[in-house]
Amino acid sequence: MDTIFSFLSVLLPFLFVLTVVVFIHELGHFLVARWCGVKVQAFSIGFGREIFGFYDRHGTRWRLAWIPLGGYVKFIDDENGASVPSRDALQRMSDDEKQGAFQSKPIRQRAAVVAAGPIANFLLAIVIFAGIYSIVGAPFTSPRIDEVVAGGPAERAGLKPGDLVVAIDGRAIDSLQDMQRIISTNAEHALSFEVERGGLRVTLMATPDRRDQGDGYGGTIRLGDLGIRRVLPPKILEVLPDQPAARAGFKSGDVIVAIDGTRINNFQEMQQIVSTSAEKALRFDIDRGGQRVTLAVVPDGKDRVSDSGTSVRTGVIGVRGGGADSEYRRLPVHVAIWRGIQETHFIIARTLGYLKNVIVGRESPDQVGGVLRIADVSGQVAASGFIPLLNLTAILSVSIGLLNLFPIPLLDGGHLMFYLMEAIRRKPLTERTQEIGFRIGLSLVLMLMIYATFNDRGVVMKWIGL
Questions:
Q1: Do residues 193 and 253 both lie within one domain?
Q2: Per the count of CB atoms within 10 A, which of 8, 159, 240, 412 is most buried?
Q3: Is the per-residue pLDDT at 243 higher than 70?
Q4: DSSP-based three-state secondary structure for 136
């Protein structure tokens, strides 16, 4: 029974995330195709044998298939679900039928239909991010430096405890979260820090070191580390739903005074005790609005793969910390939308930057993950609640939209590349040329999937208990 539950706890979040992302992507193609007068034969979520389906009033077959690893929109003149055009099918059509054929449309309309899928993915991400920021709120902690690690990049650059970071490379910094994100994604890149120190503005150059950190399933994440720390007071900023802390009665704003009689001075000390107490009862003494409250909680045990590759049982209770300068702010809708656009742009820029570094040899491609890693991460994130799962959906939506824009035949970007060539040549590429291109594209996609699955071997080892 436990094995079935564990399997479902991974499968159901994965299906939710992938289905939402694929549906919106294909819906983008579908809506613009209808707007351009293209006859859509089928709208499928998944591949293979149909589970169920129906016809709409325009004659489109809406179907759900057994293999939930993608989807497609098939036009009346397509050879298959990959949108490979069929010249034979077009030639057999009557003049009236050709009016609804995709190949008979002008290049600008065909390009719009193809580009609509990735654009829909980007819009989905913006909507999700904006919804979270306006309804739940965005975390804000003052970007002040509490500690500087001896011998680290920050100390070498002249940064000091008490410095308030106001800008990095000319970009205004409003929160600790903004500062951490820029530092973590710029390992070994020189950054210009503008800090406020004793009422004066000081500009310093610092280069974050590269630090490899276990990603929880056998791989590593390469992060930038500047050697600065925030010492957060033991205050609970957020209690995650359906987690041990929520079930025990913890509330946002609680200040942890002691655990099992041991005085707690900061949030990090609380984390250390909890992480080493998986499935062991702990007694928390809490200050709640001036009143002393005692709560008993048993941390859940989560299996994590350490940096050395060994499995470690870690305790979690489902809380997030923050200090007096930490809060969740609900943003006005227009600000939330703009922040959603910025977040989407950041993911795109970071992904392209990583790929560029892989090509020039500055990064290893071992961080490329596939379906197994997405499934595993979905299950882990879902355990933290629905909002984190929505956030993951937005991130994956951006990634899938961007991937589809790569100029690889068989992907949307490959079709757009063919249309560009057609516009330059003033006539379509020959059917033979396109067929060769699609075969090359299929080979590249299959090789990428195989490589990604090889990188995901740590996930499989974790699932089977090795």
A1: no
A2: 412
A3: yes
A4: helix
Residue 233 and residue 286 in contact, taking contact as beta carbons nearer than 8 Å: no
pTM: 0.71
pLDDT digits (tens, 9 = 90+) for 365-374: 666 666 666 6
> Would residue 164 count as lying in a domain?
yes
In a domain, 409, yes or no: no
Of residues 337, 345, 348, 449, the one with CA closest to residue 399 = 348
Residue 105's alpha-carbon distances to 37, 337, 365, 430, in angstroms, are 9, 34, 40, 17
Co-location of 154 and 219 in the same domain = yes
Q: What is the pLDDT of residues 312-352, one digit of tens each?
A: 678 889 888 765 556 677 889 998 999 899 889 888 887 88
Same domain, residue pair 154 and 224: yes
Structure tokens at 460: 């499989």
Partners of 96 in beta bridges = none
> At which residue do the structure tokens 């020189």 appear?
190
CA distance 205 to 190: 7
Return the percent helix, strand and coil in the chain, to nearest 5.
45, 25, 30
CATH number for position 181: 2.30.42.10
Exposure on the CB side of residue 4, measured as CA atoms within 13 A: 1
Domain that holds residue 252: 236-328
What would the pLDDT profile of 249-259 be if each residue is shown by its tens digit?
A: 998 888 999 99
In Å, what is the CA distance from 279 to each residue of 208, 258, 268? 37, 19, 19
User: Which residues sit opposite 43 in a β-bridge?
Assistant: 62, 73
Phi and psi angles of residue 357, each rounded to the nearest 5 degrees, phi first:
-65, -35
Q: Which is nearest to 30 in space by CA: 161, 119, 99?
A: 119
Q: What percent of the chain has pLDDT over 90?
A: 31
Q: Nearest to residue 217, comparing CAs of 391, 367, 382, 394? A: 367
DSSP track, 327-384: EEEPPPHHHHHHHHHHHHHHHHHHHHHHHHHHHHTSS-GGG---HHHHHHHHHHHHTT
* Among 286, 311, 328, residue at a domain's last position: 328
Domain count, the chain: 2
Domain boundary among 200, 229, 258: 229
Instruction: State the DSSP code for 251.
Output: -
Burial of 315 (0-12, 13-18, 19+ CB in 10 A): buried
Known active-site residue 279: no
Cα Rg of the chain, angstroms: 26
Calpha distance 374→89 (Å, rounded): 38
Cβ–Cβ < 8 Å for 218, 466? no
Look at residue 459 and tell me if it is in a domain.
no
- Whether residue 366 contacts residue 453, with contact meaning beta carbons closer than 8 Å, is answered with no
